């Protein structure tokens, strides 16, 4: 029972990290796709609308990125720390099956 509770506690943090990371990846894709659409836009009105959406997408990406950093889930400037986070997440995931 104790092992189950420990796994569940680890899973809550893991779930937050996984959701936030997935959200960041989706936000990146949104920025990339909006940029591509902007280069293909045929009218000034569409380009204006897409620029506004692009700015919103970039702002959302920045907020998610900062959230990940503030929670200690992402260390873009410190490879050793990021490796620790990634290894810990892997260990938690592996222990969930026990």
From TrEMBL:
<protein>
    <submittedName>
        <fullName>Spore coat protein GerQ</fullName>
    </submittedName>
</protein>
<dbReference type="InterPro" id="IPR012851">
    <property type="entry name" value="Spore_coat_CotF-like"/>
</dbReference>
<keyword id="KW-0167">Capsid protein</keyword>
<keyword id="KW-0946">Virion</keyword>
<comment type="similarity">
    <text>Belongs to the CotF family.</text>
</comment>
<dbReference type="Pfam" id="PF07875">
    <property type="entry name" value="Coat_F"/>
</dbReference>
<keyword id="KW-0749">Sporulation</keyword>
<dbReference type="InterPro" id="IPR012347">
    <property type="entry name" value="Ferritin-like"/>
</dbReference>
<dbReference type="GO" id="GO:0030435">
    <property type="term" value="P:sporulation resulting in formation of a cellular spore"/>
</dbReference>
